[in-house]
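Predict structure. Chain length: 444.
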Amino acid sequence: MTLFKTSKLSMVGFAFPAMPLAGFLQSKYILLMPLYAITMGLDTKAIAGIFFATKMFDVVTDPIFGIVSDKYGTPWGRRRPWLVLGTLIMVLAIYMLFIPSGKVGSSYLFGWLVVVYVGWTLTTVSHTAWALELSTDYDQRTDITGWLQVAAMIGMMSVALTPAVMEQLGTTTHAEKVAAVGWMLVILLPLAVLVCLRSLPEPKVPPPAHIGFRRALAIVAGNWALLRLLAANAAITAAYAVVQSLFVFFVTYTLLLGERTGFTLFFLMIGGMVFIPVWVKLAQHFSKHVTMQLAVLYGMLVPALLFFLPPGRLWLTALAFLFVGAITSAHELLPRTMMADVCDHDQAESGAERMGLYYALLQLSSKLAAGLMASAIYVGLSWFGFDPDAGAENTQATIDNVRYLIVFTPIAAYVLVMLLMWRYPIDRARQKELRRIIDERAGG
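Prediction complete.
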């Protein structure tokens, strides 16, 4: 096993890009979709179709980029050049999406979503693959992923805090809140990447072994641990996408707290931040897949808080979302650190280290699940007769349907995760055996 050693300050600098990247992901559904539905007046079905259609590009681009980033290096490293390029693309696309000039239509939203997703793929795959390559130890990988998740939760909290502060200073429109978050991301993302590049070197990896395309595909398709993890990751991503997509509508129209959405969102993020060390310690005490089962079991119980939550009770609402938010940090932390172990299984089988490809597949499952679920939720809202433009003029029965969707849909997804993680094949002992095989082959 290779233990990774560095200062906490260097690790903070390395994890910094996860902050604005997670901030973008958080705001995409909670702020951006309502912006184009409410302010720009796009039909909810059209928005659902756009977010779904843009995901189809990722089906092709994500695996291709994962393969390219693993196979081809530069004098500056395998991950760093793509991280810089992806950042430049994202900064431009975020500005165009969050701060649109005048009234824009469906083609504008579609085009810039495609661009921002390309930048997102280059940036996140490069940064996370680089992080997961820092150590080969089962438990230390959880620590490293924990650092990334802390930065990510701070980014999500910043997205929530910005509108909350604006609400305290005076009445602001939704478009003004979105623009403020957009400027924050445009400034923070390049700064964070610059700090990251100066914090840690890329680890040296052996030249990739050559394996034929058919054998490489067969190894991936036959990796049952990978397939089960991808399905579980898709399910928990879909569960959170429901909360993200319905959050503004639920707080505004069901709970009648539209002027305090940022304040409430901040408590959702605080819950995730507080629980990061809990999930890390549980994963190191038990195993990662058992901890995922514990997390989703918790996630099946806490939605009851939202089901019985009365309208107009700000602090009770904040407390409820504090407990609901506890599982949000498990959504990214556990699948990421588990994917590094799955990559060990692949390397033991193929002889090639393909962290970029495997994390690209993990990210693809997240994108497809989030896009499909967000689209399904918006179609469902339309089917139930909910009109964002009508606001409080929607019938009480229609507004109640928003509550049912945000409570019961995640529970169904978490049940599936529980089943997928039952008797999961890669635990601590199995991962150590895989590393022994890889190290013996390298020594030979």
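Summary: The chain has 17 helices and no strands.
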